[in-house]
Here is the input.
Amino acid sequence: MSYPKRLIEVPDGAILSRDESKNLIDRVIKMSKAESIQVNIGGGYSANVRFADNQMSTAGGITDFTVVIQSSFGKKHAVVTVNNISDEALQRAVAQSESLAKLAPDDPEAMPALPPQQYTEVNAYFDSVANLTPSDRAKAALTALEPARRPGTSPRRDSLSRTHRRRR
Amino acid sequence: MSDRRDFLKKTGIAAGAIAVSGALRTAEAATSALTTPVPSPASVPPPMDPATKELLMEALNAAKMAGATYADARIARYRDNQIFTREQQIINVVDQDSMGCGIRALVDGTWGFSATRTLTKVGIAEAAKEAAAIAKANRVARDKAVQLAPAQSYPEASWQTPHTVDPFTVDVKDKASLLLKANAEALKVAGVKFVFSGLFFRKQERNYANTDGSVINQVVIQSWPLMQITAVAPDFSDFQNRGNVVAPAGRGYEYVGECDLVGNAGKWGEEAAQKLKAKPVDVGRYDLVLDPSHLWLTIHESIAHPTELDRAMGYEANYAGTSFVSPPDQFLGKFKYGPAFMNIRGDRSQTGALATIGYDDEGVKPEDFLIVKNGVVNDYQTTREQASWLKWWYDQQKLPTRSHGCSYADSWSSVQFQRMPNVSLLPGEKDLKWDDLIAATDRGIAIKGDGSFSIDQQRYNAQFGGQVFYEIKGGKITGMLKDVAYQMRTPDFWNAMDMIGGKSSYAIGGSFFDGKGQPGQVNAVSHGAVPARFKQINVINTGRKA
Here is the structure.
């Protein structure tokens, strides 16, 4: 799987490498006292830009991920989600998923955990998206904003801008 | 010092695992605590820990160094706990726990936002720089500079939802056993075949600071017990639901006890079974008597949404659409929303309401305000940025231009923007009650509980169902109806209101899940109301087959 070596726009540590993910998952699995445990990690960096009334309103960049822990005892299982990867937090989440699983009713559709698998590599990482800068995003918004700002384009804007004008 | 582990310890979070916590209060104990008084709103959360404050200051300094003229930072932990059951089994338990820091920077009149889960000085400084960088990048697309209305600063403030039992200290087993007992009670009723029940809890530990000098910590707790009971006709020709039985609230676990699901489940089950035998409504015009448990939703959709200023100004069109109460200069002080005795108040102060808070997510201490005053549009819901859009109106009214404290973000990772406060229909002068309204009505329909609804994108044409419907004849309830929904045009409907209850009939309803924005955010909001009567409203039958 190809991962970026160093991304300028994405904050350091925002995207876990394959090894970092594997280490985190191994840490969680070691904490487990359940018959089986499944750990999913999802997240990374996401960015957005919004515009309305012919200008930018909000824009942001968010770095986060979640660790989803599912513990199973026979046909009973439960899931706990956490974004804190300190030892205490992970330990707490594992223990919690175990006690919730014991409480859960049997899932008639539960299947035993699969043995280790060989997964096909999926490369859904695109530098063209990851390397988009805030300025690229603003310019993309401008392609819609500029034509809309031309006089006579938007009757609604003319009426709304009265309120704007009055505040000046 | 100031790492995540520290934040955990200092805020006492490390001890919070729900299934292993020590001093548990059982569901039974909470049920018997019906008379527990709500603690005084003056109760405060533990003070902000120094490490968190240091991180907040780091965020503000880094944003200022990067060119921000204003910045604010939120370091917060958001927790969700939900349990759902049906009949005699648990179907799901959800436990979510997320913390991090969100930073907003204003550079040259343009906003930027960045959020990170990395709660270290370096992580937070980087996020602050990114927020400023995004703001600078957006400058090229700026039209008008953002102007923040003046706001007082609060250098050391705190607030918490008044509560006696933190729902996150209650063992999930106790939560489950309460629901299963309630389900069993409902299932005793003849005809009741299915029961769905659940408990939703939220806890938000919010730490906030801005470059105006405010440093605020708050703890918000919300609870919502829910049940939906389904009765099935013996010949399977019909089924009827009784749901939305109690309102969600800004309260602790003691509220679950007060709702007494076990004690009420039989009654709600009877209502579901009774609906099977109810008479299908004849279409036509009726006088409607609407209970607060129903009317809150009509207020939410047809008054609260269209008076969000960003919707009225065209900044928000997703989810709930824009607004017919637009442009503001043609409505403020001019538009007759309803009769002269109609007053609609925005507030974040009602004890037990979901949007109640000490300080909003930009550090403003909200004051109550009238959205509709004596029947006429008087104000909109605002943030600091938005309040300045209405300066002309406030000047004209000789009022200061200030935010109504409606800034809210549903997570540390979401940018704060205008969200709904509690929006409520205030009581009338005469202390009329539900029964007085029924007694005064010759031919009508009384509705309790909120049901399915549909409304257009400007909040102008709508249709509302309900949970239970009663026929009123000659001032008396004569029996139950089913398949009732009413149609309305917003101003026609509110202007048809001719009678409302007084103070003692005031009650609160609300929603845990009000959506807005992109990326979408969820807000929890309450609406208080008194029973009210609406003359000659068009009623349709939703059960008729083509």
